[in-house]
Amino acid sequence: MKIGVLALQGAVREHVQLLEQAGATAVAVKRAEQLRDLDGLVIPGGESTTIGKLMREYQLTEPVLKMHREGKPIFGTCAGLILIAKRVEGLDEPHLGLMDITVKRNAFGRQRESFEAALNIEEIGDNFQAVFIRAPYIEQAGPGVKVLATVDGKIVAAREGTLLGAAFHPELTDDLRFHAYFVKMVQESMVTKVNL
Ligand code: GLN
């Protein structure tokens, strides 16, 4: 199993390390042809406007959409969550427009620009130390979206089929559980394909 980490911006190495510790082969990817033989993709945090612009410049948008159509799981963290959302508050056009959610950027305000919170995450486990940095939250989620975690009543982690999103940075702790959950999603997607 090979999982790519989009290496345009953000904590790429940390994602690669955690995916490897969770049992996957992980590679940093920046070119369209590198996406072809992947079984899953992580889109890290950073600045969503910049990552979106670089994705368009490097012609990565269509190949990532193709991965999604082929049933390959995609995991967006922080800016990555904004990139996979179908609706972004204040933007006319979404970036990849995949997950049936509306996200609000920099949503926790100045007082809580960056903070940590111990989360109980459905399907993943309790007491997950989550690092939030100018984080978005999910304002609205469609009926097919499973909410995995909230902070102050705001949705900060969710799954819709092969899409996984977190408003925080699970790669900035040494807790493997979120990445292990994604690796399992990728494994399951591969089994499904074999059975088709
Ligand atoms: N505030 C950033 C954005 O809107 C996301 C922050 C992050 O990825 N840590 O793109």
Automatic annotation (TrEMBL):
- State the UniProt keywords alphabetically: Glutamine amidotransferase, Hydrolase, Lyase, Pyridoxal phosphate
Please name the catalytic residues of this protein: C78, H169, E171
Which Gene Ontology BP annotations are present?
L-glutamine catabolic process; pyridoxal phosphate biosynthetic process; pyridoxine metabolic process
Question: Is the Membrane keyword given for this protein?
Answer: no
Q: In which pathway does it act?
A: Cofactor biosynthesis; pyridoxal 5'-phosphate biosynthesis
A molecular function (GO) held by this record is:
pyridoxal 5'-phosphate synthase (glutamine hydrolysing) activity
Superkingdom as given in the UniProt entry: Bacteria
**Catalyses which reaction?**
aldehydo-D-ribose 5-phosphate + D-glyceraldehyde 3-phosphate + L-glutamine = pyridoxal 5'-phosphate + L-glutamate + phosphate + 3 H2O + H(+); L-glutamine + H2O = L-glutamate + NH4(+)
Q: Does the keyword Oxidoreductase apply?
A: no
UniProt cross-references to InterPro entries, sorted A to Z: Class_I_gatase-like, PdxT/SNO, PdxT/SNO_CS
- Gene3D superfamilies xrefs: 3.40.50.880
**Chain positions recorded as L-glutamine binding sites:** G46, E47, S48, R105, I133, R134
The EC number(s) this enzyme carries: 4.3.3.6, 3.5.1.2
Q: Name one GO cellular component term.
A: cytosol
Q: Which residues form a coiled coil?
A: none
**Similarity remark:** Belongs to the glutaminase PdxT/SNO family.
Task: Summarize subunit and interaction data from the UniProt record for this chain.
Answer: In the presence of PdxS, forms a dodecamer of heterodimers. Only shows activity in the heterodimer.
What does it do? Catalyzes the hydrolysis of glutamine to glutamate and ammonia as part of the biosynthesis of pyridoxal 5'-phosphate. The resulting ammonia molecule is channeled to the active site of PdxS.
The protein in question is named Pyridoxal 5'-phosphate synthase subunit PdxT
Taxonomic lineage of the native organism = Bacteria, Bacillati, Bacillota, Bacilli, Bacillales
Q: Which gene encodes it?
A: pdxT
